[in-house]
Amino acid sequence: MALSRLDNLYRQVILDHSSHPHHHGVLDESTTEIEMNNPTCGDVIQLQMKLTPENVIEDIRFDGSGCSISTASTSMMTDVVIGKTTSEALALIDSFSELVQGKDVAKLDALGDAQILSGVAKFPARIKCATLGWKALERGIYENKTTTVENQRHCDE
C-alpha cells in the first residue's frame, strides 16, 4: 500500500511539472540557443540560457512541444541547474543519464525532483524523452562561445 502511495506521489510530481513547467517560455537575453528533437516520438525543444562570464547558468528557459516525460524532465532540469557552473551542470547531466539507465547515482539529492524519473529505466523507449532537455543543455554548454569547459567531450544527440 505504501509503495502505491509513493508511486502516486511521483506521478503527481511528473504531471505537475508537465502541466505547469518551471522556467518555460522565452529568455529575452540569452547567450545560447539550442533546438533539439527526438524523432522517435516527435518531442521538440528550444532551450535558451544566459551564462555569466564566470560560466554560471544565470537563467534558463525552454519552449517547444513534447510528451509529459520530456516536458517534466526539462522542467526539473531547469530547477537544478540555475546558479550552477557549467562544470557542475555537466556533472548533473552525467548523473541524470546514469539514473535513467538504471545505474546507481552517488549524489542523488543533487538532481532534485528529477531523481523520481529513475523509473524511466524500465521503459527504454522513454529514455530519449527524459534526456532530451538534458542533452540540449549539454550541447548548449559546448556550443557557447564564451564557455571554457575542461576535458571537452562529444555531445551525442
Automatic annotation (TrEMBL):
Domain NIF system FeS cluster assembly NifU N-terminal, chain residue ranges per copy: 10-129
A GO molecular-function annotation: iron ion binding
Any one biological process term the GO annotation gives: iron-sulfur cluster assembly
Entries under CDD domains matching the protein: IscU_like
InterPro entries registered for this protein in UniProt: NIF_FeS_clus_asmbl_NifU_N (IPR002871)
Name of a matching Pfam family: NifU_N
UniProt-listed SUPFAM superfamilies: SufE/NifU (SSF82649)
NCBIfam families per UniProt: SUF_scaf_2 (TIGR01994)
Family: Belongs to the NifU family.
The protein, known as: SUF system NifU family Fe-S cluster assembly protein
Organism ancestry: Bacteria, Bacillati, Bacillota, Bacilli, Lactobacillales
